[in-house]
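Hi W.,

Here's what went into the run:
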Amino acid sequence: MINQDSKTILEVRGLHANVNGIEILKGLDLTVKSGEIHAIMGLNGSGKSTFAKILAGHPAYEVTAGTIIFNDQNLFDLEPEERARAGVFLAFQYPIEIPGVANNQFLRLAYNTVQSQRGKEELDPLEFDDFVREKMKLLEMNPDFLDRSVNEGFSGGEKKRNEILQMALLEPKLAILDETDSGLDIDALRIVANGVNQLTNKDNATILVTHYQRLLDYIVPDYVHVMEAGRIIKTSGKELAKELEAHGYDWINADDHSKTAGVRL
Amino acid sequence: MSAVLQNLVNQPYKHGFVTEIESDIAPKGLNEEIIRLISSKKNEPEWLLAFRLQAYEKWLSMSEPQWQNVNYPKIDYQSISYYSAPKPKKKLASMDEVDPELLRTFEKLGVPMHERAALAGVAVDVIFDSVSVATTYKEKLAEVGIIFCSISEAVQTHPELIKKYLGTVVPVGDNFYAALNSAVFTDGSFCFIPKGVKCPMDLSTYFRINTEESGQFERTLIIAEEGASVSYLEGCTAPKFDTNQLHAAVVELIALDNAEIKYSTVQNWYAGDEKGVGGIYNFVTKRGLAKGVNSRISWTQVETGAAITWKYPSCILRGENSVGEFYSVAVTNNYQQADTGTKMIHIGRNTRSTIISKSISAGYSNSSYRGLVRIAPTAENARNYSQCDSMLIGDQCGANTFPYIQVNNNSAKVEHEASTSKIGEDQLFYFFQRGIGAEEAVSMIINGFCKEVFQQLPMEFAVEATKLLSFKLEGSVG
Ligand SMILES: Nc1ncnc2c1ncn2[C@@H]1O[C@H](COP(=O)(O)OP(=O)(O)O)[C@@H](O)[C@H]1O
Ligand SMILES: [Mg+2]
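Here's what came out:
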């Protein structure tokens, strides 16, 4: 969905970051424009989730160098909740359980907080109930999940759907989906991908962090990036994913002897 | 919500007033003479003096308990003044004279405007005629035969009831603090619901206003006769300051056949500063006697204040089929210490009890649940269910559970469950990532955690308690 009058949503330059004093990101660059879908692939431990959480402002990660501009703003000036309200959405690789907090209350509070930030109308519990049920249909989710505690006792796939439900409610400017496909069977994958496709448009952008090509059969990216040891080492069109699937990650390194060969997928 | 903040606004050092010499304060220390003085000042009958002296006698032979899981410097009981004559409240001329910190607290808690003024001791007769409200309220209760007044008043107006019931649930020598209270109590509430009467409204200490400050040794007695029922609310969410450090109250509840007493407390005594300096020691003895068949005693408490809390609202289930309940939320932050829980003493057949205890610890605080379930040999088919959940916020606080179970009848069924959880960084981050700020996130988690207890509170109280908890934990996370 690359279009002419697209604007830059995310501009990452020379990003370095530590966790517990160990450098994980080592000079990451990435530009994302409105209307685009970017896939980031790479081996386990290459730093994909670290990058995703840094975008969202997770306190465990320390940015040591580099810049991130989101929507013409310095992202580092915003607290995590302000980033969310400004339209940064992260679908977690491992969504956490919150016992005792009802999903519907949580969803409504998140929705209303973001709505009011955008100067839009908040919904009372009854209105919200109708609204969220419609959204759940899109993801073929059972409304029973509304009354349960947030993610508590949900299966892996149910948690992922609950993440996409939140994306549907919050209508982010930039959605980062961290391995949303893992743990989904093929039917669920199709439903979730279908949901995501309905949410993408020319004004927003999506970053899909994934391990596998199969998600990209359903959500077709404009760019595929390969991440290794905290950097993006290759960027190409959607055909790159297919090549990776066929040849493995060390195929990329064939012309770069400074790096040790990666492990095959 | 009444007798609360006057002390704060009256604190001379805080507001730069000159300390007036009180003419009617007993010399420091405790002896027989002082007790006689208290009794005569209050114009008490001979038997009540005897009650006090007997308690004092017992107290002398007792020593302060050491078993509770709290630490504090030794209290010098001879440096306390045990009697001061009721003083008229000092009124402030306008809200401008009220401590801004206090106003900020009211704001946070959403205390209604007219109440703020009343609580802060501002003369508000124009805005809010508290006297007339209290009077209307009393008249309504009198119509159905309910007596609700201060215990000193009841000693004068209904001595036969006081004589019959006082000290029957918590005997004068029950424990160190109860003995002290029995010897020197100065005031508190009395409530009597006659046979068959369902109290038409929640009785709140708030409406016992314009009586004097109840003092450090408060005494409460509630009686529900056959088939009667009452819901009693104690305390309030606005912070309660007092220059007296030690508070040792006694509350006795008596439920006759088919009667029901529900006693709800929101406790927010001054807890000291962030370093734990100052703060009230709240050493309370609360006990209910489910005396009659099918009677029910239910305690619900939200404990948020005090530097040290030592409190075990208990039920003696004597009547056949009687029911005891204890629902508790205890929040500790900074350097607060709480050792709280309950005792369920099953004596009658088919008696049932439920214990739901939730503790939330933050900062450097420590919270212990201590509970006893005793099934007497006579308690055929007794049932108890206990659930104790602890939540920790941060790494410096602690929570302990000390359940004591004594079963002397094989037909009894006693269940105990316990859990400990933490509010983790990742849970909070999940909220943040969805646009929800720290305060609301914590409040949602805490409310979820405390749901079963809050459900027991009267609606308004529950709303206030919810806010209070968030307020108490403000800044401890995120
Ligand atoms: N909180 C953390 N504490 C310590 N190490 C971490 C933490 N988060 C990530 N790491 C380390 O950072 C590296 C990159 O992890 P991650 O970003 O999760 O990779 P990916 O998502 O690409 O699999 C790994 O070596 C991982 O062990
Ligand atoms: Mg990952």
